[in-house]
Write a sequence for this structure.
């Protein structure tokens, strides 16, 4: 594993969770922002991006997808990162649950309902309903999850979520430029920046104006995944360490949690992948630098270079990189097993899962 | 603890869970059957019985009720058995989650959504929607809960549920007479028997006709708690022992599980209270005799005789007796702690909780 940022905090958290029992959650939600052509590649077409969160949840829990045909893919057939998440959960034996923060397409699995609804396009300037209630339910859930586990992992499957993350972090003044990632190697940065500008304008918000009010920023220009995950993070981190599994989408969650509960900084870290850290078209490290110098990034060095499958090799070419908590689950599997599970083990298991899904 | 029925199975299960890590669930649901005057005392008025499941869930998770004023009480002010459940969960430190199988009044807590809806009055003969889907989601949840726990406890808060249980067990031919319990010491047996007769007639079912089809019996004359709990029981019991926490309502669940998955008998037992076992107006033991000779009843000898509070002493006079998994949670607390937690400890903690709630 690699570490970026505060090594002291990272070492302290890793020490406390090493060999411990973790619990993994994946928060699924929709935002209609993902259906704006060009925004999201997390789905074969803009319409199919709405099915991706539910399908990811089904794949994790059931090993098969029932809400649509096939599994979530990016255009070109690159498989969802849920394949890696599943490998990490299988190898570690970790408990895991789905959290539904607001899905238009419902996953056919048991999930924690947060009372949220599908988010609107951010250009409406009025994107997310029930933000405070979803946050409060998330907080209670975080407390419950922490009750008999040594640490909690949160994550997301929410197509379109890097655009909403950019919007929220601009509204909060965390970001002044577009540093967020994309599931495509051709990050549509101009389109995203334009949509965010429109969204802030529609909401009547100046960049940085909502520095102290992340929930309001989310209500205006965010997505439903955010208040749920900020809640879970804050509810859990007051008693156990939390791994925030994900990429730039989760940066908005961490920025929000830091404002609402600054006392919890030091008890959570980001868990992600080297694919994201190496992305030339985004900068996870610069985003985190601007949020806090006490939230380290720990990343798993999973490597698909030698994979016999082109769909997986594509991760090495800049496709996908993160999502469905694949990085956080990998870090968790390594930590829970006290290092016995290696990145090579994870790749082997991904191959088995991928062959099973594709019928090779 | 006392044991009724198959001591060999009871000893085997207790041995396997002794000192182990359990996880407790309480499945909440409404059936409009509870609003028929005289049917249910699980609420101060027939209308308030609809609030009882949500309020119990809130009390367990938050320690306070938000969906209504006060806490669930029986007429006369006798407090919900959730007070004992909470004591057992607090002392044991056990993880616990709420399962929503179909509530008209929603609890403001994070819960597992089973995709169910509020049940209709059983006299319609068409009481529960989505029975198979709720069962299937329950099954998946049972598998997930068993994933990293040594055993699972299921339970219910569903006012009106002894009447629906009687109806389902009559439809299945498990019962030929009215042996079910009531939260009142004046069990309204004639009313219940009459409603069940009407319900079976409305559904066009002869008693015993649905011997092999519990899900259809539930759809006709049951309540939404049942398919969820049958699912959780079956999904969990294939890998870990399950404590079925509750009274005669849960007998319908066990009868259904036995038909759908007979191979699991031997891996679950009922967990309840001595109040229920001693009830002169129902017969838990005779009901279980008619279901299987391999499903033992283990009951906690919690005793409120010397309680300084009349609301609690009333349990000794035949009020309430069971519900919200108070018996199963007590058995679980004793087992998880390898006997270190005693019934006296539970009573002490109930007093603390009760004083806190009542502001004494």
């Amino acid at each position: 594993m690699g570490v970026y940022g505060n090594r002291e905090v990272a070492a302290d958290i890793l020490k406390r969770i090493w060999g411990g029992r973790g619990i993994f959650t994946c928060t699924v939600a929709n935002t209609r922002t993902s259906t704006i052509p060009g925004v999201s590649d997390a789905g074969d077409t803009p319409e199919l991006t709405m099915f991706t969160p539910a399908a990811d949840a089904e794949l994790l829990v059931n090993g098969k997808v029932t809400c649509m045909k096939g599994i979530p893919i990016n255009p070109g057939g690159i498989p969802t990162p849920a394949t890696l998440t599943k490998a990490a959960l299988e190898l570690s034996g970790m408990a895991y649950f789905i959290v539904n923060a607001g899905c238009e397409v419902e996953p056919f699995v048991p999930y924690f309902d947060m009372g949220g609804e599908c988010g609107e396009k951010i250009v409406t300037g009025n994107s997310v309903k029930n933000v405070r209630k979803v946050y409060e339910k998330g907080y209670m859930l975080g407390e419950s999850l922490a009750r008999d586990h040594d640490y909690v992992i949160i994550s997301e499957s929410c197509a379109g979520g890097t655009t909403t993350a950019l919007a929220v972090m601009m509204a909060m003044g965390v970001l002044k430029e577009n540093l967020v990632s994309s599931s495509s190697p051709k990050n549509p940065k101009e389109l995203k920046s334009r949509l965010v500008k429109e969204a802030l304008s529609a909401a009547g918000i100046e960049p940085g104006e909502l520095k102290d009010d992340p929930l309001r920023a989310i209500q205006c220009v965010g997505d439903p995944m955010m208040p749920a995950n900020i809640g879970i993070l804050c509810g859990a981190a007051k008693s156990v360490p939390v791994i925030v599994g994900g990429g730039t989408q989760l940066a908005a969650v961490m920025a929000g949690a830091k404002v609402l509960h600054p006392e919890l900084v030091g008890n959570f870290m980001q868990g992600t992948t080297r694919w994201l850290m190496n992305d030339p078209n985004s900068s996870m490290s610069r985003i985190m630098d601007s949020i806090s110098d006490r939230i380290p990034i720990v990343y798993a060095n999973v490597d698909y270079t030698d994979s016999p499958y082109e769909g997986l090799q594509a991760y090495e070419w800049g496709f996908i990189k993160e999502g469905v908590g694949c990085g956080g689950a990998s870090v968790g599997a390594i930590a829970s097993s006290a290092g016995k599970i290696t990145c090579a083990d994870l790749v082997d298991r991904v191959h088995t899962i991928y062959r099973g899904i594709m019928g090779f």
Remarks:
- The interface with chain A takes residues 21, 23, 61-62, 93-97, 100, 106, 108-115, 133, 136-138, 140-141, 144, 147-149 of chain B (CB under 8 Å).
- The radius of gyration of chain B is 18 Å.
